Amino acid sequence: MNGWMNKIVEINLSTGKQKTLIIDDDVRRKFIGGRGLALKLYTDMCSVDIDAFDEDNALILLTGPLTGIIQTAGRYQVTSRSPLTGTIMDSSSGGFFGANLKKAGFDGLVITGKADKPVYLKITEEGIEIKSAEHIWGKNTHETMKMLHDTSSSNISVACIGPAGENLVPFASIMNDKDRAAGRGGMGAVMGSKNLKAITAFGEKEVSVSDPEGLKKIISTINTLIDKNPVTGKSLQLLGTAGLVNVINAFGMFPTENFKRGVFNDAEGISGEKIAETICTGRSACFKCPIACGRKTKTENREGEGPEYETIWAFGAQLGINDLEAITEANYTCNELGIDTITTGSTIGCAMELYEKGVFPEKLEWGDSSNLVKLVEDIAYKRGIGKDLALGSKKLAEKYGKPELAMQIKGMEIPAYDPRGAQGQALSYATSNRGGCHMQGYLISPEVLGSPAFMDRYSIEGKAEIVALFQDISAAVDTLVLCRFLQFAISIDTFKDILNIVTGLDYTENELLKVGTRIYNLERKLNSEAGFSRKDDMLPSRFLKEKLTEGASRNRVVQIDEMLDRYYKLRGWDENGIPKDETLKKLEI
Predict the structure, then answer these.
(1) What DSSP letter does each residue of 523-568 carry, written as one string?
(2) CA pair distance 589, 44, nearest whole angstrom
(3) pLDDT tens for residues 317-357?
């Protein structure tokens, strides 16, 4: 079938056995690839109460039908049970690994079992080999990638874990192509629990396309749309994601000192503009990406990529820190050790407020960057106070008797947009299937950036409708496995056209959108069966009771209950947020 390699391999690391999975055409039509098909495979294989570190838990890495063909299509999607949240988890990463996996002849991998000793998977056009990784176990991600490149080829892509994944830190990342990350939810820890250190991939197979001439035309059209859009054609190219720092701070939504405030007094000192002036040495891009939003940087002591907007916040304003070099080096350390910057920084911020309240034993103070890198290292190795911080903010705050100080939803830390300044984003956070997350529905786009049109960020009118729509579109884009930044430049109708040109199928816009709706409801169904409900679609009390006292979002709180009622009704869920039988039947779940 055009667009797919028609080969997903299940590998049991306990036995070493491999088998090719047969995907029914109807299933492929309903779930396509990436996030959708991985979810369907996971649902069929794993019970709802399986532990993330159980040997029978599946770790699924999938590409999509557009992977290796069009702009930004070098990504891959990872799905499993999260050790951080207990929810179904999807995590996405850019770079070149997805394209190399696809061009080696594989749509994806389903990994089960646990190897007796550390192993890695070597994937080529000839097949998949399970090889010893004892010589790279304990190495950081950059060392691991270099050693595998040295013994194989500089052309391969490597996805691997660092010490954080080996030590089962529940927010460990999978890193690939040096500094790209499947960052959130602890997929690196799931990989580590299987004694799987790395996966290498390289291939040069062509992906079949139904309409090659149509593909050339639509690639040209996409390039034009990317160039015309102010976000993809200007802001991201000039400053990368760090261009948001001054923007969000001006809106009074830049979370400061564990979300106590929405304005950071030295945002300029850690902004994208400051990075461009001081530490930026160049741009970097993922597979076939004309945006090139990545930033190569160099401090006095080290060099690497980033920090991105979320990381600048997590190690900057969230901790009251204005030391750009310290923030950047903490980012480098997270990449090398394989750990999520958002959860890491937010958990340290939680600990700082716990110390401020007199209940945390280690002296951690706002604005102190002197031991930031060491704290990251301590978390990755679970040593000293790092063992507590490695719990994540929810369990950390519960341990010290102040659960309200963890800025999380369903166990996942909320990212760098204070929800009191954007009601739609607040609702999106609350109803995200994977926890506190901006990627499952980026309402900052219409509420702050005015894309595709401005919405009143303080109003709750129409927010249930737009949140559900954005969540469904995002699920569909994750299923095609494309970069979310394309959503600024092209519509769901164009995504549908690309899919049809490549595959030769005849999706309508409504059918592709329904795929996204189906995915979102199946994820919700799995979470519901695992015990999640309305009680978990709730923001920390700080956002509901404590008004911001300064900045453009002052005197605001989140109005969640009324929006939830409307959202549930719109979704076809009951008053507790559980999908109704008729809804599931309508979506053929």
Answers:
(1) HHHHHHHTT--GGGS---HHHHH----SSTTTT----HHHHHHHHH
(2) 12
(3) 999 999 999 999 999 999 999 999 999 999 999 999 999 99
Structural domains for the chain = 8-201 (3.60.9.10), 242-406 (1.10.569.10), 419-586 (1.10.599.10)
In this structure, are residues 377 and 335 in contact, taking their beta carbons and an 8 Å threshold? no
Q: What is the DSSP letter of 154?
A: T
Contact residues for 137 (Cβ-Cβ < 8 A; gap 6+): 118, 166, 197
Q: How far apart are CA 3 and CA 146, in angstroms?
A: 32
Give the residues of the chain that fall short of pLDDT 70: none
pLDDT at 313: 98
Q: Is the separation of the CB atoms in 501 and 211 below 8 Å?
A: yes
Cis peptide before 403 (omega within 30 of 0): no
pLDDT for the residue numbered 154: 83
**For residue 342, which amino acid is it?**
I
Per-residue CA distances from 424 to 413, 420, 587 (Å): 18, 10, 25
Contact between 341 and 372 (Cβ < 8 Å): no
pLDDT tens, 458-471?
Answer: 999 999 999 999 99
**DSSP class of residue 268?**
G
Give the separation between CA 379 and CA 82, rounded to whole angstroms.
18
Structure tokens at 212: 């090659």
The CA-to-CA distance between both ends of the chain, in Å, stands at 24
For 164-194, b where at least 16 C-beta lie within 10 A, e where not — what string? bbbbbbbbbbbbbbbbbbbbbbbbbbbbbbb
Spatial distance between the Cα atoms of 528 and 433, rounded to a whole number of angstroms: 10
Give CA–CA dist 18/21, Å, rounded: 10
Q: Tell me the C-alpha distance between 524 and 532, whole Å.
A: 9
